Amino acid sequence: MTTPPSATPEPASAEAAEPLRLAVIGFDHWYAGIPFARRAAADPAVDLRGVADADPERARHVASLTGCARATGDLEELIADQEVEAVACFTSVDLSPRLCEAAARAGKHIVAVKPVAMNLADADRVVTAVEESGVVFVPSESRRTSALAERLSALVHSGRLGELRTGTFAMNSSLPVNWPGATDGPGWFTDPARTPGGGWIDHAVYQLDRMRWLFDSPVVDVAGTVANIAHPGLPVEDYGHAVFTLAGGQVVTVEDTWVAPRGAFTNRAHLVGSEGAVWHDTASGLLGVQEGGGEWTFTRLPDDTFDTLDTLLGAVRHGRAPSSTVRTARDTLALCLDFYAAAGAGR
Predict the structure, then answer these.
(1) Domains along the chain?
(2) How far apart are CA 151 and CA 156, in angstroms?
(3) For residue 68, what are the CA distances in angstroms to 32, 176, 205?
(4) Nearest Cα residue to 62 out of 229, 218, 193, 180
(5) What is the pLDDT of residues 118-173, one digit of tens each?
(6) Sheet holding 239-246, edge to edge
(7) Reduced to 3 states, what is the DSSP secondary structure of residue 287?
(8) Mean pLDDT (whole number) for 284-291
(9) Mean pLDDT of the chain, nearest integer
(10) What's the pLDDT band for 12 if we cut at 50, 70, 90?
(11) Are strands 251-257 and 164-172 parallel, antiparallel or unpaired?
């Protein structure tokens, strides 16, 4: 017998209601890791069992921010803890694949730093471990359930904009810092041995995930350029501009930089379809929509912050399969590496 829509749903099982026993390992990417840990500590659906960092002092600092009773300098200690169900890994990119593979083999669900790996060989090992273990893997570069993502999805996937024709994504920020309040430079963020790129890949991963989700068309060609404009001595680029041609004929540009002065961060996008367009910009705080030849209408820009914890909880506790998986992360990395190869070849 089918339950009518108006019927009261059955209560969740006691098991489903139990807090997710979570650990956060590594805070190299502290921009994402510290907010994630603080949010996890404040969520009644989560039991933050421990935080770890190769620098014990940083681990203790995050523990003090979150009220977590357990802090360790051993990145693998919490992976080995049988009481921990899931880990969030925010180490530098070079360390993440080994830790994620170990977590998957130990049966832990995973939130992973972006990008998933330095190269496709390491990414493929993570894919294999995750898929063989059957754990949930949530990539940090995917924000498909944020309020802004849901608004864009409603406009695009409902057909209100018609067929998408072009897309423009652009982000400008200043050079990252190694730790909150640090004055010793960007640290690992600009070390080619610890990250596959600089100012472009740092935020392009988010935009490429959104491009692939909204346009739903494979990339058939990539071109572009990288440069060092504001920081000529940097061992990685501070500027990148990519042009992606999709199988459906659409063209999407992705520009990401570290050339802005401190405090001048902006993130913007413009999608144009056959029946309308949508535009948003963090500098103005507005989202604009134009449909069917009418006037532009503007509303307050919806929130687009990290939604990886919600996605993890939805998958592990409520059986909602994430729209982004470890293979999504692997394919996003592949596009990034294709761009760097094209730019290096002068295409």
Answers:
(1) 14-139 (3.40.50.720), 147-304 (3.30.360.10)
(2) 9
(3) 18, 27, 30
(4) 180
(5) 999 999 999 999 999 999 999 999 989 999 999 999 999 999 999 999 999 999 99
(6) 219-227, 239-246, 251-257, 164-172, 266-273, 276-281, 286-291, 297-300
(7) strand
(8) 98
(9) 94
(10) very low
(11) parallel
**Please, is 9 exposed, middle or buried when counting C-beta atoms within 10 Å of its C-beta (0-12, 13-18, 19+)?**
exposed
What's the mean pLDDT in 266-290? Answer: 98
Give backbone dihedrals phi and psi of 138, rounded to 5 degrees, phi first.
Answer: -115, 110
209's tokens: 């995930």
Give the DSSP letter of residue 28: S
What sign has the CA pseudo-torsion 168, 173, 179, 180? negative
Percent of the chain residues topping a pLDDT of 90 = 92
For residue 129, give both structure tokens: 């471990």
Count of CA atoms in the C-beta half-sphere (13 A) of 5: 0
pTM over the 0.70 mark? yes
Residue 306 CA to residue 142 CA, distance in Å, equals 8
Whole-number pLDDT of residue 8: 34
The residue assigned the tokens 């740092």 is: 202
